[in-house]
Amino acid sequence: MKSNSSVLVVDDEPGMRTALRANFQLHGWRVETAAGVHEAGRALERTNFDLVVSDIRMRDGDGFAVMCSALKSSPATAVILLTAFGSVPEAVESMRSGAFDYLTKPISFDQLQAAAARVMQRAREKTTGDKPAKKAAAVAGAGIIGRAPLLLQTLQRARAAASTDADVLIEAESGTGKELLARFIHESSDRSSKPFVAVNCAALPEHLLESEMFGHTKGAFTGANAAKAGKFELAQGGTLLLDEIGEMPLNLQPKLLRVLQEREFERLGETRSTHINIRVIATTNASLGSMVEQGRFRSDLYYRLNVIPLSIPCLRERIEDIPALAHYFAEKFAAEADASAPVLDESFLESLEAHRWPGNVRELANFMRRVLSLHPGSKIDAACFAQEFRPLGMARVGAHALPAAGTPISVLEKMHLENTLQLANGNRTHAAEMLGISVRTIRNRIKEYGLPPRRYA
Going by CATH, does the domain composed of 6-128 fall within 3.30.360.10? Predict the structure, then answer.
C-alpha cells in the first residue's frame, strides 16, 4: 500500500473508530477520524481524501450526507458505506448514489482492505492513464460487472451469505456467472485465505467422480497406484464448489448427503473417517425442485443443499449492464491480443441491447471475441453486429439458412450440435448447458456423429 494513501473514518461509535484506525494504519494508510456528519464535513473542507469509510446511521445524520460532501469536494474520492442494518434497497440506493462499495457490520477487515485495495488500483489507473473501459462498472470482486438493481440485490444476498458458514445453492440460467458468484462469496468470507476448489459434476465420468470427490488409497481399485486426496480434502478450511450438482449420479447422492451432514468422509479403500471444515456451494442451471418431483434428485439432499438459495438475473433482465460488459470484454480481449481497445459505436451498443442473449454473459463474451477477432483495429458499429451476429441454430447463411423439408432429424441434430459447440468455443460443459442436456449426452453424440473429439474438449 502507498504510504501517502489517506482515509477518513466516520463513525459515532468510539470503539469502531479506534478499530478501523488501527486496521488502516497497519496497512500503511494515513488516517483521520470523525465522530459524526458535521465533524466529517469540517475534515472534508480541509483535506481531500483518497477514501472515506462512513457508517450510514449516526446520531447527527447519515452516511449519504457524508458521501455527498466528499464527492462534492473531491469527485475522485471513493466512499465505502457501512451499516449494521443492511437491506437490499439501501444497498441499491448507495451504489446508485455513487458509493464505491457497501459493507454490512460486523466488518470483516480483510473484506474492507480488499475494497480499499480496489480503490487504490482505480487511482493508479487514473494516474497512469490506463483508465477502465467506458461505462464499465465492477460492482465487486471475482470479475462481476454491472450495476443493475437485480444484480446488486443478488450481491447483497451473497455478502450476507458470506458472513455465515451456511451452504449455498445457486440456481440460474446457463452463462449468467454462477461460478463467479461462488468465488465472490468465497472472497467475501473469512475463508478467503483458504482454498477455493471447484469440481464439475457433469464433466467427470461417473466411475471417476467418487474418487475425485473423496480421494482413494493406494490399491483401492485397478490403476490406483498411489493414494490421492479428493476435492473435499483439498478444500479443507475453504470453499468447495459443486458445479452442475444436478448431474450427480443418484447412487452417489447418499454419500454426499452424509458428508454435508456429518462433515466427514472416507477415502475409497479406507475405513478411517476424515473430518473437514468447509463451506459447500452448489450450482445448477436446472430446477432441482423439479428434478426431485421427477425422481431424478434426492429430496433430502436438495433440502440439505438449499440452506441459502441464490439466483442470478439473466442478461435480458439487466439490459442496462450490456454496454459496460461490452466495453469490459473489448478491453480484455484487446489486451490479450496486445492491441488497443476498439471504439464501440453507440449503434453497436444499441444492437447488443436489442438482442435477448439466451446464452447470457457467456454468449455476449464469445460474440465480442468474434467481433474483435474479425474486425481488428476498426470502429465497431451496427454493421459489424449485423455481419457477425447469427442466432443459435441459424449458422448457415443465404439461401440455405433453413434446412430443406425432409432433412433427417439426425442431420439437423448434428448441425445444431456443431453450431452450439462452436458458439461455446468447443467447451462441452457450456454447450450442454445451452442445450439443456448432460455432458455425457454431448460426449456420446460427438462419438455417434463422428465429430472430431479433440476439438471439443
Answer: no
